[in-house]
Amino acid sequence: MRNHGTKDSIAEELADCCIRIFDYCGARGIDLEKTLLEKIEYNKTRPYRHGKKF
Questions:
Q1: 1-54 pLDDT per residue, tens
Q2: What's the DSSP call for residue 46?
Q3: Are 21 and 32 in contact (CB under 8 A)?
Q4: What is the dihedral of CA 4, 17, 47, 51, to 10 degrees?
Q5: From residue 52, how far is each of 9, 35, 44 by CA, in Å?
Q6: What pLDDT shows up at residue 29?
Q7: What is the pLDDT of residue 47?
Q8: How far is it, in rounded angstroms, from Cα 29 to Cα 44?
Q9: How far does the chain reach from its first CA to its final CA, in angstroms?
Q10: Closest by alpha carbon to 36, among 27, 25, 20?
Q11: What is the helix (H) or strand (E) element at residue 28, kind and residue range?
């Protein structure tokens, strides 16, 4: 078991999140790959820090 709060444990938790999301999409017929690619292309048209966050 990894120490909580380390990069490795955070990465492991994020991997678990991704697995759950992929499983959810697969079970519901959601084409996540297509949607992600479309979103990436759309985001290329947006100005840098368009939401003025950070």
A1: 556 668 889 999 999 999 999 999 999 999 999 999 999 999 999 888 766 665
A2: S
A3: yes
A4: -70
A5: 30, 24, 16
A6: 98
A7: 85
A8: 27
A9: 34
A10: 25
A11: helix 7-28
Nearest alpha-carbon partner for 15 in 29, 23, 1: 23
Asked if 18 contacts 12 with a C-beta cutoff of 8 angstroms, the reply is: no
CB 12 within 8 A of CB 5: no
Which pair of structure tokens corresponds to residue 17? 């999140």
Helix (H) or strand (E) holding 23: helix 7-28
Amino acid at 34: K
- Helices 32-44 and 7-28, axial angle in degrees (round to 10): 110
Provide the CB-side half-sphere exposure for 32 (13 A, CA). 11
